Amino acid sequence: MLLEIKNLKASVEGKPILKGLDFSLEKGQTHAIMGPNGSGKSTLANVLMGNPEYTVTDGSILWNGRDLLEMEPHERALAGLFLSYQYPVEIPGLTVGKFLKRAAESRLGGEEKLNVSAYLKEIRESMDFLEMDRKFINRYLNTGFSGGEKKRMEILQMLLFKPRLAILDETDSGLDIDALRVVSRGVNKLRNPLFSSIIITHYQRILDYVKPDRVHVLYDGKIVESGGPELVGELEKKGYEWIKRQNPREVDHEQSVHSA
Amino acid sequence: MSSPSTALKKEEYQHGYHFPDQSLFKTRKGLDEDIIRAISGQKNEPEWMLDFRLKSYAAFLQKAMPNWGADLSRINFDEIYYYAKPTEEQKRSWEDVPDDIKETFDRIGIPEAEKKFLAGVGAQYDSEVVYHNLKKELENQGVVFCSPEEAVQNHPDLVKKYFGTVIPYRDNKFAALNSAVWSGGSFVYVPPGIHVDIPLQAYFRINSENFGQFERTLIIADEGSFVHYVEGCTAPVYTTDSLHSAVVEIIALEGARVRYSTIQNWSGDVYNLVTKRAFAYKNATVEWVDGNLGSKRTMKYPSVFLKEEGAHGEILSIAFAGEGQEQDTGGKVFHIADNTSSVITSKSISKNGGISSYRGMIKVHPGKKNIRSRVVCDALLLDEESVSNTYPYMEIASEDVTMEHEASVSRISDDQLFYLQSRGFNEEEAAAMIVNGFLDPLVKELPMEYAVELNRLIELQMEGSVG
């Protein structure tokens, strides 16, 4: 098992968001996690990456049998975890080229010298593949990029860093159909028995391009449904209201208890 | 309360080390006329320079300490050695230099030749021949590049004409002190129309007193000439001296262009109080690039007097204030003539409670026409305890002025840090990348090797600063 999450509980600024989530993923698999807004999708992505703003209050995450929660964010990245952000952050003054070079060097761990010209060639080819202007290499990272350009920048990093597990957090949101097609092409390019991915999304759109092996529905901090790709169609038909009706929110329940 | 000279702790200044004291001649602590006569005597100076020193000493005694800017109350003038003549031939070899120091040089990326020079093994300096050739080339162009001591001996007319004219000995207490006890520095004269292609650096001149507490530099760029002078180097300056008070004077005659770059990294107990000023005549350009890392207190405001029409002044200031440090820096421009323009760009970084202050002055003399000036100050704070101040003074006595002033204060955001961490960088690396990014637009203005070294210095400064 590549990733094994058990009874995960996490909160942001003292507010519980994940409320006992169980999830597991095998090597080479692509899973989709769907859910309405506020169900905890981005929290899950951030907790997996180790964002200190999210506090894990209970449960465990095993990464290849290792305790992921004991690892620093950069250790997780170097161990092969990658998060494609919903809102990539702008870093003024840091050029894309310099950033990618430093990132590649940190992955070599200082033991091996980076073959800069070969890497540059790979960057250019990957940019062409993602239909990105090569001039982006001299721009400051994400600074002044449009939403679509930022998402392509994330996928470019994913192609270059070759993670073992990529988490795509709402990568499809705000993308037009051409951009979505290009982004999906990037994910599909990496699909192989050693690459796994978790596609977090509100909509089924991206799943038309990247076919998941399993689909999970996240609602109110828990996985409430799991199934094969056919679950996507079912959700599309019935909408999230169906899930909401079946799973009354814990919060609501608690509130009614307190007010009683 | 410990005296400043014992305050240097190894852990505070991890890149520094002390040279064994190899002085042949050293004045006793404190300052009086006898000591000034002794310094002058050691340098075999003519009477007129001794007179200048004595007049300056009188002014030093009269002048009050600055009552603004950084806190200087702990400077004890009686506890300072004002002159130490270095050994004439340093017989140490590179092998004697401690390994950790060699390593520091490697980490900063200093070229081999420069490493040896910095480690005080100049006598075995491999690249001597290279620089000897350079010197030959400069001589053929008529360029004078020597220590101010040599200039006093060999070019007394130029020295008498210009020395102390840009910064008079009575300008301020520390300029007066420097004028009284100056030692080492550079003297540069570029003849009309000559463009000096490579940046001049003091370390080209081996076997002379390049660095010192009270260095004195005078650069005269004659009509239509160009020179870029690079002060010291970006390496840590290893000194236990508690007071560095230099004076730098630049004269750019008609159509000349002078660029003066400094990036200094003093050890943490140094008071760095430097007066730098330039006169720019008709259509001349003077650019100061001034980077200040380290030191306990820095007060430094490179200035340009735009004395004739068409003159242009530019000041780029970089300051990095860490724990217990106060960087009070900026720039001053005096628009004394019509059709003059200036740009001041200041970037400061404060961490672990450090204080960075931008202090600037733009003065436009009465009725001067077509004056343009732009001041941009950006400050980056690395944590909650650190401080940034901005004191942009303006005295404008003219209507025909275009003035822009922008100031910003930003913080490293947690989002930026986490984003880079999630790409495989540890917290320190991530913070250093953000800080270097903040400086990038300015660093692009620096010579290549210089920019690389500054980036690495910033990374060294950032070690252990977060988390």
Question: Could you please describe the fold and organization of this structure?
Answer:
Chain A is α/β, with parallel strands linked by helices and 260 residues long. Chain A contains 10 helices and 10 strands. Chain A has helices at 41-49, 73-78, 96-108, 116-129, 147-161, 177-190, 205-209, 230-238, 240-246, 250-259; strands at residues 3-12, 15-25, 30-34, 54-63, 66-67, 81-84, 165-169, 196-201, 214-219, 222-227. In chain A, the strands form 2 sheets. A 6-stranded mixed β-sheet of chain A has the order 6-7-8-3-9-10, sandwiched between helices. Chain A has a 4-stranded antiparallel β-sheet with strand order 2-1-4-5. In chain A, β1 and β2 (15-25) form a beta hairpin. The N and C termini of chain A lie far apart (45 Å). The model of chain A is unreliable at 252-260 (pLDDT under 50). Chain B has 467 residues and is α/β, with parallel strands linked by helices. Chain B has 2 domains: 4-300, no CATH class; 423-467, no CATH class. Chain B is 26% helix and 31% strand. Chain B is globular. Chain B starts with 24 loop residues before the first strand and ends in a 5-residue tail after the last helix. The chains are: A alpha/beta (260), B alpha/beta (467).
